[in-house]
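Protocol step 4 of 6: structure prediction from sequence.
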Amino acid sequence: MVHHSSILLGLLLCVTSSYSSKIVQVNVICQKAKNPSFCSTLLNSKPGGAKGADLATLAQYTIDVLHVKLTNTVKLINTLISRSGKDVKALTHYKNCLKYYFADGGAIFVLGNIQRVLKEGNYNLMSVGANDIMHDISDCINDPNYHDTSSLPNYGQVALQIDQIIQIIAAVTREAKEAKKQLQCKDNFRKSSLSLCNCTSSLFSPLTSSFFSSLSHTGDDSISPEKEGMVVVVEFEKDEEVWWTVVEVQVEEASDINGCL
């Protein structure tokens, strides 16, 4: 494997920028929702309006709205438990729902983690958390052992729609991040000493050693015109993890390009 400081500089510049400040129109987000009207109404209800708000601000507002909804749902569940009397099926159902919403690892707990990773700019974990909340709520309102005629299922459906908006914002941010990263990567390589190589594609991910060892590459320091399209694997450390980036090489000149990498 070949290591070169100019390569590492370019790669690190590709992954350190923040994308949460990107401004995206509400319709771009809400066109991905199952209920675009609900999504648009919710985001535009943000104090001061959604126009000009960046993705991080919209995400924070949506998290706050969902927290209020989940908190009110827990209050409703406690009321339903107190009214269930000796109805064993109802008691079992509502107590299970209380766990899904309020127990350690439940929806409200996970939402707190989403709040934390939003501040860290980790939109992958934000998406994972929103998906966990979706499962918690769905497990409550889709209990096959109890037909719930209370308003709890409606509360759950609304919470699911709010949660989906969080998932969409996370996805839109990741897409914007990847698109800008590709442009930055190409620009950084052009500005570096790699004058004979173009960064045509790069994939940043914490790959396993087994995946890394399975990648095909030449393993030598010499690059010739015949090696155009060759995949080069560059190893570096990020957040105390070993990462690899896969770079496809293109040769601009047929002259001597040894030492390009």
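Step 5 (inspection) to follow. Residues 152-191 form the longest helix (40 residues).
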